Description:
By secondary structure, the protein is of the alpha/beta class. It is 23% helix and 25% strand.
Amino acid sequence: xxxxxxxxxxxxxxxxxxxxxxxxxxxxxxxxxxxxxxxxxxxxxxxxxxxxxxxxxxxxxxxxxxxxxxxxxxxxxxxxxxxxxxxxxxxxxxxxxxxxxxxxxxxxxxxxxxxxxxxxxxxxxxxxxxxxxxxxxxxxxxxxxxxxxxxxxxxxxxxxxxxxxxxxxxxxxxxxxxxxxxxxxxxxxxxxxxxxxxxxxxxxxxxxxxxxxxxxxxxxxxxxxxxxxxxxxxxxxxxxxxxxxxxxxxxxxxxxxxxxxxxxxxxxxxxxxxxxxxxxxxxxxxxxxxxxxxxxxxxxxxxxxxxxxxxxxxxxxxxxxxxxxxxxxxxxxxxxxxxxxxxxxxxxxxxxxxxxxxxxxxxxxxxxxxxxxxxxxxxxxxxxxxxxxxxxxxxxxxxxxxxxxxxxxxxxxxxxxxxxxxxxxxxxxxxxxxxxxxxxxxxx
Length: 444
């Protein structure tokens, strides 16, 4: 069993090994440092709590719980993902739980872990959430969880047990709530790991409902990620997760919306076509268990990349594929004056050898644009690895970003938000200029 548990984290550990080797766990410190918190409340399984509070906290900050993989730790997730650097930008607070048991896997198997307030790791994590809420003016409508592998399993568990606390989650390579259940004290469930636990949507939903009987309130939104070549937690688990969360939301198994955010990804949405649909699932063709964690897309799904709480029936951040409203509503008066046919705002969030770029392209001309291409030259050393709301080619040098099917039309004064993730060799600057369908754009 111990060998199997190591498999959950071995591939992911390689990506952060260098950071861990240099990492010194910090003692309690000021803001913008990862800080270990002790004495945070009821903690039946002796978890450790690490807290990241950015220098500039939003007036009503969101709270994100980031849960590590087997063999991992809270500090490893802090240094190996971009959730903290995005917190610097958007002002939310991050909690990184850390397992102390020898496997370094979260308990998603025991009967007590799969019952609300039953004990084990979920109770300790909830104590961490309550600790932060008692000390900061956290927005109760913006509390979220995310994790990878064992952490993705725990994300499913947290959202299942505490639907009144967590408003959404993002699970990277996980399994449904209750799939890993055991009664013999084992942390490993081979049948689930191998994708052999197959249930109806109703059965999956009932597992969650029975863990918190009597609850009739809304269920959290869920974003699911899985690689088709995952040989640790087989791809069938992705299908079973979709069954579970669509059933909990009372939705059909038929997607409302399907697109390809990049060449080997298929994204399906259920119960809505916008960027904050009740269930969003990203299938990653050819990707193994060692899948990339797209923190920016998780933050986008949560709504933590803005200052307002997502509405109950959220307006799409990615427009619907019919006749979409612009991402930024057109002004009620005439479009703002400009010396070019378009205006581009470009924001960079960089870390170590990576960055994300967020662009807003506005049609400042007087005619509707039906089909657009944005041209720009990336600074030397930058290479795009993935993007959203546009296709990008080539991945370095002189790049052209082209519309996708649902955002091809830009009315006068309308805007579209696009973005990408890239690696860099030290230079994190912005392109010097932009063109839209060959016409020069202003920037700012």
